[in-house]
Amino acid sequence: MTAAIVGWAHLPFGKHPDETVESMVVKVTNQALAHAGIGPDDVDEIIFGHYNAGFSDQDFTASLVLQADDRLRFKPTTRVENACATGSAAVHQGLKTIAARAARVVLVVGVEQMTKTPGPEIGKYLLKASYLPEDGEVQGGFAGVFGQIASRYFQKYGDQSDALAMIAAKNHKNGVGNPLAQMRKDLGYEFCRHESEKNPFVAGPLKRTDCSLVSDGAAAVVLADVDTALRMKRAVVFRGAGHAQDFLPMSKRDILAFEGCTHAWQQALAQAGVALSDLSFVETHDCFTIAELLEYEAMGLTRPGQGATAIKEGWTQKDGRLPVNPSGGLKAKGHPIGATGVSMHVLSAMQLCGEAGDIQVKDAKLAGIFNMGGAAVANYTSVLERLR
Length: 388
Fold this sequence. Notes:
Low-confidence stretches: none
Largest sheet: 9 strands, mixed
Distance between the termini: 13 Å
Order of helices and strands: EHEEHEHHHHHEEEHEHEHHHHEE
Structural class: alpha/beta
Radius of gyration: 19 Å
CATH superfamily of the domain at 3-117 and 214-229: Thiolase/Chalcone synthase
Helix content: 25-40%
CATH architecture of the domain at 3-117 and 214-229: 3-Layer(aba) Sandwich
Shape: globular
């Protein structure tokens, strides 16, 4: 236990035409510092998560955090990027800085603004998170990549459309109670299961309800070493953290195994000294419903090919044996890429502090987080526990 979350901020995700990357960063920076009960002078270092890849014309963005307060000037500030795991990459970099005793307090900010970009360009920018020599011509952009993964899974294990619809329905139902979520509507299983004018097929067997949302948003956490955290109003400690980077080309690995996800989970759970069954809930990376299904298997909740069992038997419902995505996940909450991993840590800390409102998991003691970039290429896990 080298670091803890001692404060946070989270803007509602969605379409924010009146905001900019800069304005969102300034808001969450000031809100997170205030929530932690500290000032800019107390921050030793800043880590900034921003994927961009073309979404923002301003591409040198790390110093935008300093716009929040002149007293942040000259603080060491670094932007990190690891595709859709950018937010967790920033959080984990903050952990390493504290573990190295190079800082006692680290501010981590994640942001993305996607909705001002035209649709065809969105697909082009997201596809940059795949291996372009193999995937560059895939129809449907990144949805096309996961559509191929779903098709391969269906060919090997049978049609899983029922399970994918149940995952989508679960996450949308959970998102209704989350005031930070982009879509707060219970779509229901029947709507998610069947093709319709409002729910067309997007890529392979994936329909619109199988795909996460295009979003704007920002989130921030304040990290502190444990000695400092014990003097703060609240502290959610990292019991374990794992990061496993896999090959970018899908041709070099069994894409249905999500082995990087498995390795990251094994690292974090071993470091925490707990088993998956000890966790109170998991926030996992459901960029597409097939991803959540594969993550059930990769984290060890079920055996390979049996992920559907977890959703069909209610294990991952909010009141199940291991609630998954009580926040609504990326599916309902939204997926502003650079902010997603930070958001997962914020929502998990809120759960552990009993501050999650209508999405609160009863008696939450241990949180598991999985955030990935690409098709299980960048894999980050965290295990959190309330310290005070």
